Request: fold
Amino acid sequence: MRILKLTDAVTEKFLARRSSHDAAAERIAARILADVRKNGDAALIRWAQRLDGLRLTQKSMWITRAEIRAASRGVPRDLMRAIEHAARNIRRVAEEQRPHSWTITVEPGVRVGQRVTPIETIGCYIPGGRFSLFSTLLMTAIPAQVAGVKRILVACPKPSPALLAAAEFLGVTEIARMGGAQAIGAFAYGTQSVPRVEKICGPGNRYVTAAKRIVSNDCAMDMPAGPTEVLILATGGSPRYIAADFLAQAEHDPDAVALLVTPSANLAKAVAAEVDKQLRDLPKSNPAWTSLQLASAILVSPSLDAAIRFANRMAPEHLSIPNTNKRLVELLSEAGSVFLGPWSAQPIGDYASGTNHVLPTSGWAHARGGLSVTDFVKCSSTQEISRAGLKRLAPVVTAMARAEGLEAHARAVEVRQ
Reply:
């Protein structure tokens, strides 16, 4: 595990690496999307065989309810209890997030409000590489259900029995065997058998992320989702715990980013030794072996303030603070999800605390948080103006409209007086 001094040059290197434009992925994604847009199901079937090794027809693309029920019966009861427990917590958090409609009188005769309505149809993209992440189905479908979304479509190239069991538990029945950029294209443009959706949510690989960027002019997206990342900021704590969190995120993907920043050289050395020790217990096929070499490091900062500045510039997806203190938490304002204290292992947030694990990466935490109920509703404004209200506001509107050169705007108010 490499240890580096935190300098301005090192900071810029890490910022530049994760914000680099993935032109190669966009070229491939664009080709796939154009094919799906032009040829629909035929393109989906062709790319499923080429990229996922799936021999599909229009009929077998969609998993039947009988298949869902049969798969669910084979899932161990203890796993189902775990899924149900996690789902309860996710739903409870989602219900707290739900925005509400309201109406106020801003001045006599002027009533304005907010109307909250759900998106009609969404597409949940569930990664299906080494494993199909059934936890992501919980994280995407449950907030949508709480928001009141009427139709939830799911895409996963190779859904596991656990994913199908989770879907049955949630009452989600429309699940397609499709993945990659082609699934994003099907959701965004529609095909002969895949309905077009209003919004796509869920993480994916670099090609899925590129596809989401490309189709964002045609279909709403939750957020760009690059390689997963964790930043641990510590002045002390258990090297074993810190190393374990390091590896937990590093094993997601060969491009995953795991960073520890600390002003303590002794802690840096202890964590590096522990990471190397724990890594040896993981199979060589685990992506952590690659991601720790490519994109991860332990950074020794000249001071705690320098470590805080680095963390806020990075705006990481996951921010772990093993040494919880009020001052530190208040100063660290930029992160997708924050884990406070030595017992807050990151996988707890990934699965069962109730917070969402679909989170902003690559600095997007500067502008937004993780997926929530608010991603699945529209907050529309309403206004009702009485004759008295019109009389009060007419001079204001006409003065402003004419100052901006919009004569018809002014006349639309004056004609009512």
